[in-house]
Amino acid sequence: MANPPKAPADPIDARLVRKLADILTETGLSEIEVEHSGLKIRVAKTLTAAPMQYAAPVAHQAPAPVAAAAASAPAAAAEAPAAHRGDAVKSPMVGTVYLQPNPGSPAFVKVGDTVEAGQTLFIVEAMKTMNPIPAPRAGKILEILIEDAQPVEFGEPLAIIE
Questions:
Q1: What is the pLDDT at residue 39?
Q2: Between the CA of residue 139 and those of 72, 87, 119, 142, what are the distances in Å?
Q3: Average pLDDT for residues 26-38, to the nearest whole number?
Q4: Is the distance from CB of 160 to CB of 146 less than 8 angstroms?
Q5: Is residue 157 assigned to a domain?
Q6: Mean pLDDT value across residues 115-135
Q7: What pLDDT is stored for residue 16 in this prediction?
Q8: Which range of residues forms the domain containing residue 98?
Q9: How far apart (Å, rounded) are the C-alpha atoms in residues 58 and 61?
Q10: Which residues have a Cβ under 8 Å from the Cβ of 24 and sit 6 or more positions away?
């Protein structure tokens, strides 16, 4: 009886694939590809957003003193008009928001800047596409509600423009 032919050795080095995966983890990259001697290896990891968890409101067991409630009421009243001043610039998509065009570059806008209608305020990266977020109208940036490289949801307020 003849010996069955041996299967060719696996050309993919598992140690190399593991090393590439380690490089992805260390650098924060999502994909890496190498080619050597006609062998091309691409290692990619799927990025998924962590599920949002919401905590139920906690009921207070003891009522707050009346004096403390009276003192905090004017502070809350002072904040309410500020929250309603201006218009919110909302994210038109789910993605990651960036405050500047490139790492290390100055931000597109900062609080207090006057902007023109259509001026780029932020970039939202969605599906590896950079989408500029323009100012809906001319005005002054009152508040920036997000941080650089923060994930955002559709309709999430990014800034307040007066």
A1: 76
A2: 32, 10, 11, 9
A3: 75
A4: no
A5: yes
A6: 93
A7: 76
A8: 83-161
A9: 9
A10: 30, 31, 32, 43, 44, 45
For CA atoms 144, 94, 80, 62, the dihedral sign is negative
Q: The pTM is what?
A: 0.49
Q: What is the distance of C-alpha 51 from the center of its chain? A: 14
Distance from C-alpha of 19 to C-alpha of 13, rounded to nearest angstrom: 10
Question: What φ, ψ does residue 154 adopt, rounded to 5°?
Answer: -60, 130
CA–CA distance, 38 with 25 (Å, rounded to integer): 26
Ramachandran bin of 70, using left for φ above 0, alpha for ψ from -120 to 50, beta for the remaining angles: alpha
Same domain, 33 and 90: no
Instruction: Return the structure tokens found at 48.
Output: 């998924």
One domain, residues 94 and 153: yes
Q: What is the CATH number of the domain that holds 88?
A: 2.40.50.100
In the chain the first and final C-alpha atoms are separated, in Å, by: 88
The answer on 94 and 154 residing in a single domain is yes
What does the pLDDT average to over 2-31? 70
Residue 36 lies in a domain: yes
Q: Does residue 123 sit within a domain?
A: yes
Is residue 73 in some structural domain? no
The pLDDT mean for the chain works out to 77
- Total domains in the chain come to 2
